[in-house]
Amino acid sequence: MRIALVEPSRTNRTIVSRLLQEGGHEVRSFEDGPEALEALASDATLNAVITGSELKSISGLELVWEARLLSGPRRFLHILFMSSLKDEAAVSEALDSGADDFIAKPPSPRELRSRLRAAERMANLQSELMELAFTDPLTGVLNRRGFFEAVTPIVSDASVAFSAMLLDLDFLKEINDLYGHDTGDVAIRTLAGVLREKAGGVAGRMGGDEFALLLPAHCLKDAADLGEAIRRQFSAARLRTRDGSVSLSCSIGVAELTAGKGLDHLLAQADLALYHAKEGGRDKVSTPPSHEWIRGNARARNRVARSSKRPNRPPLDGDTGVSPQRV
């Protein structure tokens, strides 16, 4: 593990650092809390903190509290609190402040290493759980929740221009009906593979046969050009079935962020562009259609009305994260 050791005593820092290094851990040692917090904020690879209760400018409990806030929901950070106090109240206060474990000071070398081995097991378990929570198991790209978690900080940076792309695998229902869902899954994985190879943005599977791609530093033309490259490469792929090889195609809608608008509006525009591509015969890349086209298409008007009332947001707890099949 990469450990931030916070201990005001130089002698104690040296002793504990040596114990940790002998156990195969990498150690960054700090004399006081604020410098340790600064390191934790700037170095996300630090995944453990060992701190005493009595520091210089802040208390060990304050350090624990602030470190826990820094870790956030997706970063594993194991906090081991050291104290010469062994009463039950001291242990409870440390754990309630955000510590994961407690050890007497000075620590026993054997106990310290055992507790860190337990922390490593927890780190591995959390990593696996995070993978399951934010990754689509069929394709290996982000799932809907993972996609929104990843793109929200990007969109909040007003200094970055970006575009979005929505992709829909054409005729997946027919492939499933004729050749089975296993073959349909191969088609979905093939499209995800093309996205990983060609796209440099953040890709996610929104559910079913739909994928989304956020493209920082891409204007509308750049996004459309990339979409065309993805479409051509996917169309060149062949799907093996019991009746021989079958050609594949996808429809793509691209949109560029409008000044003063946010992610919901951007994805709604990309969704409208995707619908335009599918209405235009599929297997093509489309930008948002004109207002005249929307006014002349009742279903397009309904999509615009629905998108204005229902924002594209991460699913609530309990939501399956699977969007309904497009019509």
Automatic annotation (TrEMBL):
Enzyme class at the top of the EC tree: transferase
Basic residues composition bias: residue spans: 298-312
GO cellular component annotations of the record: plasma membrane
An individual GO BP term: phosphorelay signal transduction system
Enzyme Commission number(s): 2.7.7.65
A Pfam family assignment: Response_reg
Domain GGDEF: 160-290
GO molecular function: diguanylate cyclase activity
NCBIfam families registered for this protein in UniProt: GGDEF
Protein name as it appears in the record: diguanylate cyclase
Species for this entry: Methyloceanibacter marginalis
Taxonomic lineage of the native organism: Bacteria, Pseudomonadati, Pseudomonadota, Alphaproteobacteria, Hyphomicrobiales
